[in-house]
Design a protein that fits this description.
The chain has a six-stranded mixed beta sheet. It has a three-stranded antiparallel beta sheet with strand order 2-3-6, with no helix packed on it. About 40% of the residues lie in helices and about 30% in strands. It is elongated, with a radius of gyration of 22 Å. The chain folds into two domains: about 150 residues, Immunoglobulin-like (Sandwich), CATH 2.60.40; about 100 residues. The protein is of the alpha+beta class. The chain contains seven helices and nine strands, in the order βαββββααβββααααβ.
């Protein structure tokens, strides 16, 4: 579930004034771009981002403007969503395996902590002459957010709520299948119900993202594989219980973060 979204827009010279307005001074929020550096060999810009708040950050959005030697100006956004890493860290609590220890070594508990400074890398095109970037959305672990870019905050909320809705469908389908003691293949029953929801959703027209069909399909396939791992009915049910437990942990982390309340930034 950890993931980045980059939206690139080529802007002609007549529209340059609009870009400048997006990067003008705005109310300070809980994270800032301290410095940036450009490597012309790899065409990568490295931003140093600092958490200047007193709270753990769960996501932040960067709006950036690139100016090139040939006069081209491009604008984009980079969203760093940390909820996926936070959920994985929660799932791995008590796990002492090598993989779990490595994850904790690299990502800790997944959050961006107060006072912490981290690097964020962004690929650009050759010939970069100037780069500007501001952080215009920050979401926090206490369920609040600062935003100078309401559209970007809306995208974060939509995606989180779609994931929560999908996880509820998954847990409900599995629990219903497990509740029937006469069902010889509860995994196939649950998988079909989940896949059907994804299929119906994909066949409809939507004005916003309110369900993660890809997540539903991935879990449906994972649940189907439960039937092929063992011929023992008890083992199959135990595997299903493990999957539903995993989704419940994810829900416990994500649900309080699905609708952050805006408390700072432009009103």
């Amino acid at each position: 579930m950890p993931r980045r979204i980059i939206i690139s827009l080529v802007v002609i010279a007549l529209g340059a004034w609009a870009q400048n307005s997006l990067l003008r001074a705005s109310p300070p929020i809980g994270a800032v771009v301290q410095t940036w550096s450009y490597d012309p060999q790899t065409n990568v810009v490295t931003l140093k981002i600092a958490n200047t708040s007193h709270k753990d950050i769960t996501a932040f959005n960067i709006t950036h403007k690139e100016t090139y030697a040939d006069g081209r100006v491009e604008q984009g956004e980079l969203l760093e969503e940390l909820i996926g890493k936070i959920m994985i860290a929660k799932e791995l609590q008590g796990d002492t395996s090598r993989g779990a220890e490595y994850f904790r070594k690299v990502h800790g508990d997944g959050a961006f902590h107060p006072g912490e400074v981290r690097d964020e890398k962004l690929g650009v095109q050759p010939g970069l002459k100037d780069f500007q970037a501001v952080i215009d959305v920050v979401t926090y672990s206490d369920g609040t957010a600062d935003a100078n870019n309401n559209d970007a905050l809306g995208r974060i909320v939509d995606e989180r709520q779609a994931t929560v809705a999908s996880q509820k469908i998954i847990t409900d389908a599995i629990q219903a299948a497990l509740a029937d003691p006469n069902d010889p293949e509860p995994s196939m029953t649950a998988a079909k119900k989940i896949q059907d929801r994804a299929t119906i959703w994909k066949a409809q027209r939507h004005t916003k993202l309110d369900l993660d069909a890809g997540h539903l399909e991935a879990l449906a396939n994972e649940i189907k594989s439960v039937s092929s791992r063992s011929a023992n009915s008890n083992d199959k049910r135990a595997a299903l219980k493990q999957i539903v437990s995993q989704e419940e942990v994810r829900l416990s982390v994500l649900s309080p973060q699905a609708a952050p309340v805006k408390t700072g930034g432009q009103q």
